[in-house]
Each structure stands twice: as C-alpha cells, then as structure tokens.
Fold:
Amino acid sequence: MDKLVTRIQTAAGVRLADTVIKNGYVLDSYNLELIQTDVAIVDGVIAGLGTFEGVEIIDAEGKYVVPSLIDAHVHIESAMVTPTEFAKAVLPHGVTTVITDPHEIANVCGTEGLSFMLEDSETVPMDIFFMLPSCVPSTSFENSGAILTAKDLKPFYKHNRVLGLAEVMDYPSVAETSDSMMQKLNDAHLQNKKIDGHAAGLDSRAINIYKAAGIDTDHECITADEALERIQRGMYVLIREGSVAKNLKQLLPAITERNARRFMFCTDDKHMNDLLNEGSVDHNIRLSIEHGLNPLLAIQMATLNAAECYGLKTKGALVPGNDADFLLLDDLESFSIAHVYRGGKLVAENGSTEGKKRPADAVMNSVHIPELTEDHLRLSVGEGKANVIEIIPNQLVTNKLNIEVDRAPNHAFMPSAKNDLMKLAVIERHHHTGNIGLGIVKGLQFKQGAIASTVGHDSHNLIIAGTNDLDMIKAAEMIEDMQGGLVVIKDQKVIGKLPLPIAGLLSDKDYRTVEKELENLDQALELIEAPTHFNPFLTLSFLSLPVIPDLKLTDLGLFDVKAFRHISITE
Structure:
C-alpha cells in the first residue's frame, strides 16, 4: 500500500519522482502519435505524463521514447542457451518481455525441464513468462523423452509467471474431443488462462473448432488469406520471423488500420547467431517498416498488442500505472536502439548482465544412442518410385514427392549428391528403444559428409542427414560423446561441432561462446558445400515434426501428415 500512496503522490506532483525522462518524443500507443512530455517514474512504475521533477533526470536529448518490446512466442531452447544467457543476448535488442513455451526441454525432461527453465529465469533482468506445453509428445506417432498429462501441468498454473497453455498442435485430439486434451483445455479455462494455437495448414472448419475450444492465437500462417481467416474468427495472428520460418513479407498485406490490433510479432525459433546479428522482434519491426508499415503501428504490434493479448496489464504502453519498461531510439525508421530500460533501470547499453547458473543433474546425460552399423542404416526402396521429403527453404512445411531414386543391386537406397537426394535417419535417444526411422530427403543440397543434431522438434530424437553411411555413423558417435548437440562430419572426421549437454538442447556455456561455436559450424558447412540461403541445421530440426505438412520422419518411420499416419517408402 505504501508504494501505491507514493505513486499517487508523485502523480499529483506533491512528491519528487525517482526518475523523470525529459526532452524526448514519447509514443502515445493508443492514439499512435508522438508527444513531447515528461515521464515520471517511481518504484519502477510510471506515475504520470506532463511536467515533473525528479531525483534523477534522464535527458532523452530529442530521442524517441517508446515501450520496450515483447516477443509474443519464443522457444528459448532454439537459441541453445539457458534463460540466463538468452536474456543477455536479447536485451540489447530492446526486448524486456518474452512469452516462452518450453516444450522442447519438456519433451526431453518433462516436469524437471519445466522447473529448470522457471528457476533459471527467476532473477534475470527481464520478464520471462511461460505457457505450459500442451502436446508432450506432439503426437502418438513418435517417441519423446517424456509425457505431460493435464495432472502434470496443473500445479504449474500456480506460478505467477505462467500465463496459460502453449501452442495446441494436436488438432485431431481437439476435433475428436479426446479426454486428455479436453482436460488440458478445461484446466486452462478454469484458471482463466490463455490458450495458444498451432494451426498449420488447417482450413476454416478447423479454425472454427480451435476458436470454439477457446484457442485464441496462431503463429503458423503463411499467407495473407490465412491470416485474415483467423482474424475474422476473432483470433490473434503472430507474425513470425525466425531462423527457418520467415512469414512477415507474406502476411504484411493482411494488415490494415482496421485490424492491426489483432497482429503481433514473434520469433518462435531463432538461433543465437541470428539473434545477435539480426535481432529479435526488433528485426520484425525494421523489416515491416522497410516494406511500408507505419513505424508507430509496427511498434504497437510489438508492444501493446502482445501485452493486451496475454493479459499483461502493466506492459505495452507508457502510461501511468504501467511498468517503466522503455527504449530510447535514435531513429524511428531504422529502429536504432540507444538504451534499454526495465523498471526504470538501464539494463542494456553494452549488453552485459551478471550471473550464471549451473544446470541441475536432472536435465543432463539425456542422450542414449545404440551402437550403429551400416546394416542399421540400410534402406530398401524396392524397384519402383520412392516417397521423398522435399524441403522448402525457409519454411517448415515440406512437399511429398514420389520419384525414382538411385539404388544398389540389393535394392538399398544410394544417396546422390548430384540429384540432391540424401539419407535421413531419426534415432530414438531417450529410452533405449533402438528405434531408427529411415527416409530420403531432397533439398538440403550439401555435397559431402553428414550433419546431425539432437534438436529435432518436438521429440528431440537424434536426426542425421548424410551422403554416406560411414559419415552418418561417425556423427551419431560424436553426438553421444557430447551428450547432445550439432555436428558436421566429412570423411569420417569431425569438422564442426556445438555441444548441447543440457537435455541435448542447451549449451552450458555463455552466449558469446555459443555464437562463436555457431560461426565455426557455418565454416564447417562451407567445407561440405552446404547452401547459404537457408540454415541446414534448423531445416533439419523440423524434418521430424509430424504436425506440419506434408511429409516428415519420426523414429517410427515416414509420416504423412495430411493422412496422419505412417507410410512406407514405396507406398
């Protein structure tokens, strides 16, 4: 109550503010205009706009004062660092709030993974809110490291940074009203929590079903028509620019002044080097402005819209009663960030923060791979055409091809760099099952060697693509030695690696070291003549996700997403 009294007295001008911002152009987020006014701050909260005096003065020197940014949907694990290190990386990009879905680590470590992420993010100098993973595993057509039931999730709703239920990607379970899914949805409703969607490739009837179930958002739109279809039904659309999926340019035509309040920005999955070099949702803002969007509207989408959608009542606008989270911009058009403040305190000027936590034993030593031989990787393709996964650069969806492939006299598939056809393997790494799914992929385009990763959405089994079996076997051996990570093999030698010993997903090193290791991986990819216009590792990581069309590979075999069943190579 004392803080409330202090805030009111400061607003009334009878008490000095802790801090006053002067000489800036302040964004009025509701009228979308810039105003010249002081901003009074006390106890980390904005007390008033007008003319004020304070103990400390921040001279904005003609800079633009805007709310700090909110990433409306991100998987921190995709940056391959802990929340502590993630904060250090994104704060200089103006992001002081993120809404994260830790379903990657949950698929490996279950509730222990959720607890680790919550604990590690407790004292970081930014606000990290959580949505609880709704689909662990994502489907019953693969093996993940854990299963999260409604009973497992329910206790986490008591945590003050848990906002709701994360992206519901198991559409059949919603449409068929399965008991387990209905219980998860009902628990979220009873707690008055938000429910996120994942509506990749769903038609208008399916969107009706999702919205009727209380699912309010979607970040999987790839066309303007899809976005408008969701907006028409009262959903929010999250416009994504990640390391693989880049949908902003295609969705911008859907935005008008009439519907803009239903759009937000997110990164979803973004590697550390892309976060550092390109940015977080600040990149979405710059790209939107570059393609003609009003800068103030773009900022509103990255701040107020997200805050209102997720019930963050003290975020998103510089008004009395809200948290004093703001940026000083040198320029609106280029969205050039000079300083980042959170709770009225400078948190990023040179990007440094202190403190690093060691991971708990419960999320270590999670990679268990059988000893492989060439027989394990033999893929029979008979005499006819074969079903092949064709990647689409910078997209999560794939094409299903039925084409002729090279084969040995014993009908075993022979990879062909000339025809850009490689062998793909997904190896179960959680429970010693020995499951190995084998398939063929077109479009990865590297000419030699093999690449492998334990970042394989969403079950995060080991996924390997290669031009020959011996390099694929060497990749598997190295992955187990590192207890997870990314590796590039050429002539049975390791030429690039990034160890990820925390659940096979996160590094235990600082974010700058991870950036350097990613740069070394890029150099290794050059040595096997990999393409540079898309990220082979991030593309690889989504080839085992059996909820995004058309064709994927799980540890149980080739999966036709539209038919929602496993198929054979020659079917």
